[in-house]
Design goal:
Layout (H helix, E strand, L loop, with lengths): L3 E4 L6 H11 L15 E4 L8 E2 L5 H5 L11 E7 L2 E9 L3 E5 L7 E2 L8 E7 L7 E6 L16 E5 L7 E5 L11 E4 L10 E6 L3 E5 L7 E2 L7 E6 L7 E5 L2 E6 L2 E5 L9 E4 L7 E4 L5 E4 L7 E2 L10 E6 L7 E5 L8 E3 L11 E4 L17 E2 L7 E5 L4 E5 L5 E4 L15 E3 L5 E5 L3 E5 L7 E3 L9 E8 L2 E7 L3 E7 L7 E9 L4 E3 L7 E3 L2 E3 L7 E2 L6 E2 L7 E5 L5 E5 L20 E6 L7 E5 L2 E6 L2 E5 L14 E7 L7 E6 L9 E4 L7 E2 L10 E6 L6 E5 L2 E5 L2
Parallel strand pairs: 27-31
Antiparallel strand pairs: 1-2, 3-57, 4-5, 5-6, 6-7, 8-9, 9-10, 10-11, 12-13, 13-14, 14-15, 16-17, 17-18, 18-19, 20-21, 21-22, 22-23, 24-25, 25-26, 28-29, 29-30, 30-31, 32-33, 33-34, 34-35, 36-37, 37-38, 38-39, 40-41, 41-42, 42-43, 44-45, 45-46, 47-48, 48-49, 49-50, 51-52, 52-53, 53-54, 55-56, ...
Length: 707
Amino acid sequence: MRAFRLAFKGYRPKEAFQQAWKATRPIFSAALWASVGVGVFFLTPAHALHWVSVPVITAAQRAAGLSGGEGFQMIMDISYAPSNPSIAYLAVDTTCVWKSTDAGTTWSRSSRGLFAKGVRSLVVDPRDANIVFAAAFGGEPVGAAGAYPAAFSGIFRSLDGGQSWHFLKETGFFKQTQGRLLACYSGGGSWTPSSIIFAGSYTEGLLRSDDGGATWTAVPPKINGITAIQEIPQSEGELWISAEDGLFKYDRRGVHRLGKGLPDYPRGVAVNHQNPAIVYAVVGKHGIYRSTDHGSTFLPYGRGLPPAVNCANIAVSPADSNILMVSFHQTGIPNPYYSTDGGSTWRPPLTINDRGLFHVDNSGVWYAAPISFHPADPHKALSVANGANIVIATDSNGKRWRYSNTGFTGGVLVQKTSLCFVGPKTMLFGLLDFGCWLTQDGGATFKQLKTLEYRSLSSCSAAAMHADTIVAAIGSWDTQAIQVSWDRGKTWTMFPSLEYSSHRFVCFHPQHPSVIYAGIFRSDDGGHRWRRLDHRVRAIYPPDGDIVYSFAQGDTTRILKSTDRGDNWSPVYPALPSTGADVLDISVDPRNPDHLYLGTTDGVLILKQGRWQHAGPGHGLAEDQFGLNMVRAVAVDPNHPDVLYAGKWSAGRGSSNGVFRSTDSGERWVNISANLGTELEVGSIFVDPVHSTVYIGSYMGTWKLVP
């Protein structure tokens, strides 16, 4: 493999660093390690790079011979390919589409060209497993979508099994607890330009395409708030439409309302494949209703459901219509429930975690799960532990479910100090939603640390570790409080007075680890007592941990510097250029405390010799598909400080364009997303201080790159 040789002078060899590590073991942010490095560095060219997944794998999964996959991002839809059930697809609210080629056992991301944030629903052509349609969206429910008015939403198509996607039409989809929003008919043969496609748009009603998705027509009358559409077996081109407006049927006569007897709008419907006159509807806390007259009238049906359970999704096996499953929303009850007598009686699963391979104790049953029956074997199905966000599979009609999630990752390291390098093989991960995880074998296995909940939540925004002391910011996405463990995570002490909005930085002083920075707070006695600073610490100078940085944003943004651990702050640097950009991240050259790199909403700003320079598209730091150049994370390689990494974000729009690298202190940049694809948002970047291995945190999990 061809390599670029970069020589650096004045740095200790790696062996000296490792000796210093063993002697002092100062622990602090991965992006801010002291200036120690090797004399010669070989950097793989961008075209030859390959990122490797770092799943949060448990010891039980490793012992079972699995390679890991924590899930942890919400799965909105799941589907076998009807013509080839060895192929299956996932739709995820933050990372679009994942594919399996072994019947749902292992997964890999398949979203090239799909530049939305997530996918609400998908459908596979019934006769060609390579043709897939996706309803892409901004990942939010209707009520929250107003905060993201520019979020991209629309219909995409892949003709090559998810290897590449092409945009077809912009229209509105939102996060709902209900079923599928797309239907596909192949016109009696393999895919042709005359294929009929339907989409249930929340904003436009029922849409129809007669040319494989090239053009679309709204079907009158408009149906408001479509929640699911369901093909009618043996009647190609006919649909059931569940909507907040009620239950509708679409056939050759047009759209007409049915559903007499339903007490509320149906969240979804399912049809008996052998007798389409039998239709089932799930009606929230009213339970399950059944029609035997093609949907004209409905009556409550089925025994064995828990009382007042919120029924949200229902499916019938296409191979045996006596076998059904129903999932619940926000009940905490293990589900899906299953029926083997056409819905007359319902039974709970004996387990949804057979063999005990889930990552978390939470059984993952809070959100309604999508369900996909195997097209030929009525005993098999795929579903989701939506809460733990893990794919589960059954081959017993739904009686027992097992972990089937290998490869699907989504544990998010979202802030600058979400990952802490503690030793050559020890790392601490602070995951959004799922707390603190510790590996002591270089990532071969992870163990979840039982932190305390804060306001009934355990999301971790930042964490750091030194010796046996761990400091973590735990709470919701927006507000966390600091808690400390002095026994390597066995017990914890909560400091509710240290609540703050979005703790983003937790770090031990590299030379005096009894000093701990936690955003706007500092402890001088190893975490027992804390004081509030005037500004939040956002970065540290590794060779001298007394030097810390913050910024004040207003009409003019100023970078603030403190040389006394945050006791006093000064705007010692020139005001930032008036680009209108907000500062998102700060990193420091370990050779010079006044050489700074800022990740901003408009590229990278570089302070060198007292002057600010801007790095943007003209320097190779390309804008994403939305015309944005938001750099959420910027990191310096501590061993080779001329090597920088920048992670792109596209908040409120869709997927940005991944991760970039510069080998000349930010003068020129190259996209190094490589096998990850450029439809990627990077929330954080960390550089291993021993080997210069680069880690990125994203909604598709943690990935590493050996330079």
